[in-house]
Design brief:
Blueprint lengths: L1 E6 L5 E2 L16 E5 L1 H7 L2 H5 L30 E3 L1 H7 L3 E6 L10 H13 L5 E4 L3 H11 L5 E6 L4 H9 L3 E5 L3 H15 L2 E2 L8 H5 L1 H10 L6 E5 L4 H15 L8 E7 L4 H8 L23 H11 L2 E5 L1 H15 L5 H15 L8 E6 L7 H8 L9 H10 L7
Parallel strand pairs: 5-13, 6-7, 6-9, 7-8, 10-11, 10-13, 11-12
Antiparallel strand pairs: 1-2, 1-3, 4-5
Helix pairs in contact: 3-13, 4-5, 5-6, 9-10, 10-12, 13-14, 13-15
Length: 413
Amino acid sequence: MLTGLVCIACGRSCPPGDAQTCTVCGPQGILDARYDYDAAKAVLTTEELARRPPDMWRYRELLPVPDGARRPDLQVGWTDVREVPRLAAAVGVRRLFLKDEGRNPTASFKDRASAVGVAKALEFGYSAIACASTGNAASSLAGLAASVALPVFIFVPERAPEPKVAQLLMFGATVFRVRGSYEQAFDLCRAACERFRWYNRNSGTNPYLVEGKKTAGLEIAEQCGAAVPDWVVVSVGDGCTIAGIGKGLVEMKALGFLTRPPRLLGVLAAGARPLVDAFAAGRDLVPGPAETIADSICVGHPRNWRKALRAVRASGGAFVAVEDEAILDAQRETGRRAGLFGEPAAVAAVAGLREAVADGIVGRRATALAVLTGSGLKDVRAALRAGGAPVDLPPDDEALDEHLRERPLGTGK
């Protein structure tokens, strides 16, 4: 039920097709997909959704992939939402829910976008697909493309964590490690796509990729229903994740599943915070430096900043920035109080919520849902830094007894 694409910079419309950005505005002219919402509302009812498989394609009337089109058959989406009262108490809100995106096929939220990207590449007749990424988008693309035997070319900055690069290689991708930043890898990937006619999966500019990401917002509305939280908290890199989730929530209100969409809280690392500054100053984005342990949000020039700012402002939400030590602390707290292991960029959402409570942005009586965008196994080095060292013991009971006397750990049967 896709009807067209609209440039969010100039407002021009164009028909659905193989477009990346507005032909008039160029790279700044990010396009937004539009649908026949009246037709979708007639079909997407609670009763109809109850009959559909538990994956992202249950919302096919709100996705830009034609019925019957070939798409990856890995199960993406419908990830778990669970309440975590002990973590809520530590953060300072009345109720807190976590949506665990580490349950997706390649263990990250980015599988939602890559599933759409692979489907569009096949629809448009491309023989290969490519993207630039700090890791998760790349590994998700490599895995989902491998499932349909579509060749993949990946551009990663030299600081990309080894576990993410290992995923890429295991899925058979051709990996280019760029001796530079994410921004430089992004530009090199775009140039290569134009030169070799590879399909460009970069969600910072590809209008269809955000549509995959919005399925998390659609799910949050359906899963929470009348108990939808006051705030949805999302870590922010290029800006398309929070923009997509926000769009999904707004669409579910239009379809009658929500009486009100939640407010959005975008969380950035203090070392990569241009969106925070743009939001606070009420101006357009000015690119800045990028340095943080949270590699997935280590972005100094967010390409989809217009959509991100628009979504947060429309929701009555806010942006905050958190230091790396706060992120590592949130990684420990999320593991120990909720039993979930998120990578640094994922748990940045938890750190940001705590920061927003301390700053008075989020009230202590509020309810919130934080999206954990990727598994902690994506960056083991950061996890070891957050979690501390194991206890070294010689192989005898006496040494164990001595340790337990110094630090009682409890006993059990």
